[in-house]
Amino acid sequence: MYEKEPKFHKLSEIFYECFRNLAKLHLEIQLSGRRAIRKLRRFVSKDHLHMLEKQRKLLYTRDIMDSARHDLRQTKTSEVVEHFGKLYEGCVHDFVCQAAKVETYILVLPNNRILAYS
């Protein structure tokens, strides 16, 4: 059969479209990779600092709880024992609350990481 266009033109158009599609794909991959790196950096910087802050608060409440326990053990009279006992109980409650916050944050962290990667 006789064709009006030579096969070379059809072949060059096919190659042109293939390379054009490859270039678009390469650009999309680069953009998505850069976006993922940017999200990962934000995730690491913000969440890591937030986690360190929560841990610092936990250690602070633990130190307060330990000093309250030490004061409770050093007391001799029952009135002072009762006073320091209430303080120690409050410190234990604060420590437990802060530990629960740290635990919930640790449990939520994998979900944040999945969102950061996507």
In brief, what are we looking at here?
It is built from 2 helices and no strands. Helix 1 runs antiparallel to helix 2.
Structure notes:
The protein is mainly alpha-helical and 118 residues long. The chain has one domain (7-117). It is built from 2 helices and no strands. It has helices at residues 7-74, 78-117. Helix 1 packs antiparallel against helix 2. The longest helix is centred in the middle third of the chain and has 68 residues, at 7-74.
Summarize the topology.
Elements: H1 7-74, H2 78-117
Helix pairs in contact: 1-2
Order of helices and strands: HH
What is the percentage of strand-forming residues?
A: under 5%
How helix-rich are the residues, as a percent range?
Answer: over 70%
The end-to-end span amounts to: 53 Å
Number of domains: 1
Parts with pLDDT < 50 across at least 5 consecutive residues? none
The helix-and-strand class reads mainly alpha
Structural shape: rod-shaped
Q: What is the number of helices?
A: 2
Structural Rg:
32 Å
Average pLDDT confidence is 82
Query: Main beta sheet, described?
Result: none
Per DSSP E runs of 2 or more residues, the count of β-strands stands at 0
